[in-house]
Specification:
about 130 residues, alpha+beta, disordered C terminus
Length: about 130
């Protein structure tokens, strides 16, 4: 499974598009919810690992930070977009990026050309959905 997720050349954009279209067709949206997900890590080799204060644990941890956009509705929270936060210092370290297989096209904290790490998922679903 790790090989499939980590190094497979499959195009996940189409899967996300289909997921978004399904959610929009079948769910009455009451709100959009943006939420962080702290993923604890022991080492420093996974993409985006850094030290950060985790408000849920109340302490500084070594972790990855995922950012998810969810459609809130009758069925609960349904994921429609997500991104992995990659700190700026990862962008400056080409050897570290190569070891972790971060593409050379990496362009910012969530893989987008933005200084604000939260904008990737925010600008995503409506821009990517087709009528």
């Amino acid at each position: 499974m790790h090989q499939f997720v980590n190094a497979s050349p499959w195009d996940w954009h189409a899967v996300r598009q289909d997921l978004l279209r399904l959610v929009e067709r079948t769910t009455a949206a009451t709100a959009w919810t943006l939420a962080p997900a702290f993923i604890p890590k022991r080492g420093e080799h996974s993409v985006g690992v850094h030290r950060r204060f985790d408000p849920f644990l109340g302490k500084v941890v070594t972790c990855q930070l995922g950012i998810g956009l969810f459609l809130s509705g009758d069925a609960g929270l349904l994921p429609v977009d997500w991104a992995l936060y990659v700190p700026e210092d990862w962008g400056a370290d080409s050897a570290r990026r190569a070891r972790a297989r971060v593409p050379t096209t990496w362009a910012g904290p969530c893989g987008h050309r933005s200084r604000n790490s939260w904008t990737g998922p925010l600008r995503g679903p409506r821009a990517r959905a087709s009528p």
